[in-house]
Amino acid sequence: MSDPSPVGAKPEPGPAVETFGLARHFGDIRAVDGLDLTIHSGEMFGLVGPDGAGKTTSIRLLCGLLPPSSGGARVFGRDIVREAKSLKRMIGYLSQKFSLYGDLTIDENIEFFAQIHGVSDFKDRRNELLAFTRLEPFRKRLAERLSGGMRQKLALACTLIHTPRIVLLDEPTTGVDPVSRRDFWKILSGLLKTGITIVMTTPYLDEAERCSRVGLMHRGRLVVADTPRNLKSLMKGTVIEIVCSETRRAFRALKEAALGAEVQLFGDRLNLVVGDADRDLAAVEALLRREGIEIQDRRTLPPSLENVFISVTRSAESEVSP
Asked: pTM (2 decimals)?
């Protein structure tokens, strides 16, 4: 895919985002609870966590759509509350339920969002974005007739029409087919080359591995933030993949036995996180033999970000448990 540099920005010295004890409460619910985070200019930063972890609320706070309950944040040195008006031009926001107008064409949707952002001379910019997102051949098609992947590309084009310096994407590929997800990521990679800063939430851990840094959120708090490689180094124990004759029954048996191995189910395979590979694996094999379950294959794996995420969040859960 060609890179027409649709943004034209260059990474600037200093952080793009800084938060200081940023919090947002809804009654007794601490949706975001003391977030301290720095995001560098020109990087792609991913926020991951289970539903209710505070990812979307964090994004909405940075956009100025929600006022903080306490703490604060700066985007490119501007306070998100006191200087919210000047920040609007710098920020592009793609929400989980981005609203396109089904009875408008691709061209008309982009024009509409250009008008919302006060961009009067938008036609050259629109042509760049249509070429960049590969939507140019479909520019006269109504939005209601677009596939899920094409809708997300159009939503991104609308988000970029006013040339923001940072884009905040809230689960942009949820519900999109795998081919369209891959195409969307190629577009994001092209955006990074132009110097724009990307902050995104995603439920897909394989997507998070593509980010320059990842923040793991749990119960409104940032548990840890680092590069995917460094996060994997936090993993305690050895990951062993097991392929067996009855995967789900084996999973239940191992969970109920509580042998000290952390058991994770990935499709038709089991991942065991064990402290002592020889000792713990022998206990696992003995249990499965008693259950009449045949082990067909086994191998040691490097930890994935999903392994790390599950391990870290379980540790966080145990710390807050009475």
From this structure: 0.84
